[in-house]
Amino acid sequence: MTALNLAAAQAVIEATLASARARAARPLAVIVVDAGGHPLAFAREDGASFARLDIARAKASGALAMDADTRVLAQRAAGNPVFFQSVTVALGGQIAFSPGGVLVRDAQGLVLGAVGASGDTGDCDEECVLAGLRAAGFNQEMVP
To answer: CA-CA distance, 61 to 54, in Å (whole number)?
Structure first.
């Protein structure tokens, strides 16, 4: 898939949530944002706490703002906490240092947007997003 539009965003969310149910994950919130950080689609499963959507958005927004998945950002933040505290302030808190925020790229590596999920462990959130992206036709393995 090469476009990240409403239909693609909805497909990513549907597939991410299907992956979560297949894994018996805790209820998730998932958001897909475009390259400008604007929400394309989002969903919060029954039972997900009210803050989960805000956390998912912080994961997606942070990944987009820093041009890296939140797993990578968490590793970088551990080694440079003062800088990343400043980044958090500069972004108005819209960044989360836990896996589950994943950039969406086309086959040439151009960033199309990002997906954020929150509700289970960061590892599980990220696994569900990656499965959702693959199922929706975004081959993350092609990223340069």
So the answer is: 10
Q: By C-alpha distance, which of 143, 90, 88 is closest to 112?
A: 143
CB 112 within 8 A of CB 35: yes
pLDDT at 142: 44
Q: What is the CATH topology of the domain spanning 6-139?
A: Beta-Lactamase (3.30.450)
Question: Rounded CA gap, 28 and 20, in Å?
Answer: 8
What is the model's pTM?
0.94
**pLDDT computed for residue 33 by the predictor:** 98
Residue 133, beta-bridge partner list: none
Domains of the chain, residue spans: 6-139
For 42, the 3-state DSSP assignment is strand
Q: Could you give the C-alpha distances from 125 to 10, 23, 115, in angstroms and in order?
A: 17, 11, 10
pLDDT bin (cut points 50, 70, 90) of residue 108 is confident
DSSP for 13-39 reads HHHHHHHHHHTTPPP-EEEEEETTS-E
